[in-house]
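Long-time lurker, first post. I've been practising inverse folding by hand and with some scripts of my own, and I keep getting stuck on stretches where the C-alpha cells seem ambiguous. Below is the full C-alpha cell string for one chain I'm working on. Before anyone asks, I'm not after the true native sequence, just a reasonable design that respects the backbone. If someone could post their per-position residues I'd love to compare against what I wrote down in my notebook.
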C-alpha cells in the first residue's frame, strides 16, 4: 500500500457510521468512503408516511440529557426542526392488575420526588411505598457491577422492581433485569448512589442545581418530520462520491501499516484507517480473521429481536383519552405486548385530524417467540391487547408491522469490563476503530458521541502517520 494512502473507510451506514463520515468530512479528512450493505441509509432509524400518519419503525426520541444527539441536529441545520415531546400530557401509565395507573407526578425514572402524588397513587401498595421511601436510608454499596434487578431490590424493594425496574429500566433495552448491567445501562443511577448515598437525595440535589441554572428543557426531542430527517440531512452533507449503498463488507485485512477492506462484490479497497460501525455479530464476522479475540469478545455481546406494531384509529373509535406518552406492561400482567406508545399524543403531527396513532412493542428477552408469529397473527395479538388497553370500538384504519431481528444490544453485567478488554485487544491494530450500538451505549446520542470521538482519533492518527512519514523522509 502506498505511504500516501490517507483513506478512512467507514463500514455501516446507520446513525453511527453516518455521523462518523460526517465528522471526518467536517474535520477536512478529504479521502474517506462510507460503505453500507443495504440499499437504505439509517440502519434502524426508519421514518415512513402512510395516509397522513407518520411512522417511526425504530427509534423515535433523542434524549436531551446526552447532549451529542441534539448538538449534531443543531450543527447540521435541524435546530428549527426539533420538537419536544408534548408538554401537556406527560403521564406514563403502568398496567397493574388490568388497569392503567399513571406514574405519580414527580417520579424521575424510579425515584419519587413529590410526596403527595407518591402517597396517594394506587399503583404501589402501602408496603411497597414504605420500602421505596426507605431508599433514603438503604446502605450504600460501592464498586463492582450488578444487575438492574439486584440494584432495584437493594435500593427500592421487590415491588418497585416489578412495577418500575422491569418494565421501565430493563424495558427500554427489551432486556432481562436480572442480566442487564445497571452501570452500563443507567450509569447515572449508580453514580447518584455512589455520590449521595441515596438516589432520592441525589435527585433532589440535581434538581436544586438545575433550578439555579434555570434549565427547563424537555427530556426527549424528535424532528418534525421524524428521525429520518436526521439521516437525510447527514447523507446530504456527505459528498456523493464518499458514500455507497449496496456494498457489504466481508472482511478487513491487515496490509502493511494499513488495511484492505474486502467487499462481497470482490473489491479490495485499501485504507489507512477503518471505522467499523456494523454492530454486534456483523462487526464480529468482519473482524473474525484479522482479530479473532476481539471478534469473539464482540460476538459475546447478546442482541435480542423485537417487533413494533403501529395501529391507527379514528379518534371516535377509541374511548381512552390517551392523555400520556404511553403505557408500560410489567411481566406479571401476562400480556405479550411489553409497552405501547400513544404516538399521536407524544408528538405533534403524527396522525391526521380526528385520528390517533398507537405503537405496541413486542419481543425482547421476555418473549422471543412472538417473533415467530406471521404478520397476521402478530397484528391480531396487537389489536386485541392494545384494543383492550385503550378501549377500542372500531377497526384500525392503519396497521403496520416492523421487525428488528437481532436489533437490540444487551449490555449485561460485566459489559464495561468486556468493552475495556475489547479496547485492550484492539491496541495492536492502530487505525482500527469500533463504534456503534451495544458498545459504549445503546442510544442515538451514544452512537453519535462514539462516532465523533472515533473520527477525531482517526484524523489524529492520520496526521501522526503523515508526520512520521515526513519525518523519516526528511531524515533520508
Ligand atoms: C425499535 C427500536 C427503538 C429504539 N428507540 C430508540 C430511541 O427512541 N432513542 C434512541 O436514542 N435510541 C433508540 N434505539 C436505539 C438506536 O436506534 C440505535 O442505538 C442506533 O440507531 C444504532 O445505530 P448504529 O449505527 O450503531 O447501528 P444500526 O442502526 O444497526 O446501523 C448499522 C448499519 O450497518 C450496516 N451493516 C451491517 N453489516 C454490514 C456490512 N458487513 N457491511 C456494510 N454495512 C453493514 C447495516 O445494514 C446498518 O445499516 C432504538 C432501537 C430500536 C431497534
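-- Answer (accepted) --
I ran through it position by position. Result:
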Amino acid at each position: 500500500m502506498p505511504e500516501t494512502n490517507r483513506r478512512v473507510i467507514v463500514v455501516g451506514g446507520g446513525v453511527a457510521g453516518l455521523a462518523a463520515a460526517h465528522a471526518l468530512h467536517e474535520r477536512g479528512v478529504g479521502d474517506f468512503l462510507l460503505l453500507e450493505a443495504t440499499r437504505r441509509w439509517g440502519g434502524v432509524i426508519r421514518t415512513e408516511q402512510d395516509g397522513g400518519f407518520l411512522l417511526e419503525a425504530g427509534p423515535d426520541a433523542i434524549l436531551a440529557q446526552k447532549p451529542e444527539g441534539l448538538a449534531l441536529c443543531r450543527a447540521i441545520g435541524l435546530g428549527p426542526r426539533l420538537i419536544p415531546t408534548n408538554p401537556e400530557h406527560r403521564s406514563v401509565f403502568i398496567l397493574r392488575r388490568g388497569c392503567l395507573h399513571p406514574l405519580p407526578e414527580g417520579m424521575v425514572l424510579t425515584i419519587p420526588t413529590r410526596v403527595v402524588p407518591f402517597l396517594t397513587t394506587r399503583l404501589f401498595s402501602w408496603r411497597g411505598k414504605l420500602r421505596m421511601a426507605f431508599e433514603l436510608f438503604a446502605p450504600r454499596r460501592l464498586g463492582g457491577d450488578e444487575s438492574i434487578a439486584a440494584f432495584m431490590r437493594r435500593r427500592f424493594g421487590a415491588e418497585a422492581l416489578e412495577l418500575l425496574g422491569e418494565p421501565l429500566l430493563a424495558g427500554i433495552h427489551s432486556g432481562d433485569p436480572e442480566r442487564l448491567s445497571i452501570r452500563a445501562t443507567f450509569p447515572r443511577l449508580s453514580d447518584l448512589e455512589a455520590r449521595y448515598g441515596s438516589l432520592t437525595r441525589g435527585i433532589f440535589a440535581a434538581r436544586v442545581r438545575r433550578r439555579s441554572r434555570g434549565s427547563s428543557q424537555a427530556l426527549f426531542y424528535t424532528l418534525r418530520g421524524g428521525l429520518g430527517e436526521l439521516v437525510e440531512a447527514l447523507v446530504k452533507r456527505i459528498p456523493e462520491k464518499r458514500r455507497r449503498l449496496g456494498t457489504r463488507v466481508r472482511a478487513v485485512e491487515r496490509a502493511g501499516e494499513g488495511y484492505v477492506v474486502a467487499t462481497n462484490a470482490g473489491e479490495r479497497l485499501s485504507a489507512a484507517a477503518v471505522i467499523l460501525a456494523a454492530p454486534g455479530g456483523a462487526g464480529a464476522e468482519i473482524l473474525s480473521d484479522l482479530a479473532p479475540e476481539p471478534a469473539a469478545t464482540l460476538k459475546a455481546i447478546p442482541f435480542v429481536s423485537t417487533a413494533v406494531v403501529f395501529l391507527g384509529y379514528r379518534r371516535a373509535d377509541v374511548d381512552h383519552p390517551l392523555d400520556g406518552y404511553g403505557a408500560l406492561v410489567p411481566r406479571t400482567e401476562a400480556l405479550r405486548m411489553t409497552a405501547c406508545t400513544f404516538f399521536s399524543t407524544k408528538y405533534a403531527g403524527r396522525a391526521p385530524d380526528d385520528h390517533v396513532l398507537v405503537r405496541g412493542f413486542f419481543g425482547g428477552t421476555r418473549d422471543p417467540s412472538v417473533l415467530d408469529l406471521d404478520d397476521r397473527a402478530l397484528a391480531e395479538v396487537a389489536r386485541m391487547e392494545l384494543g383492550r388497553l385503550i378501549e377500542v370500538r372500531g377497526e384500525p384504519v392503519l396497521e403496520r408491522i416492523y421487525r428488528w431481528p437481532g436489533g437490540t444490544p444487551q449490555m449485561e453485567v460485566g459489559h464495561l469490563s468486556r468493552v475495556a478488554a475489547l479496547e485492550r485487544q484492539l491496541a495492536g491494530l492502530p487505525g482500527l476503530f469500533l463504534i456503534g450500538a451495544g458498545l459504549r451505549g445503546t442510544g442515538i446520542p451514544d452512537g453519535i458521541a462514539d462516532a465523533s470521538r472515533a473520527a477525531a482519533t482517526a484524523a489524529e492518527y492520520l496526521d501522526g502517520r503523515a508526520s512520521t512519514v515526513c519525518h523519516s523522509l526528511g531524515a533520508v
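A couple of notes from the structure itself: The domain at 8-43+227-301+412-475 is CATH 3.50.50.60 (FAD/NAD(P)-binding domain). The radius of gyration is 24 Å. Happy to go over any region you disagree with.
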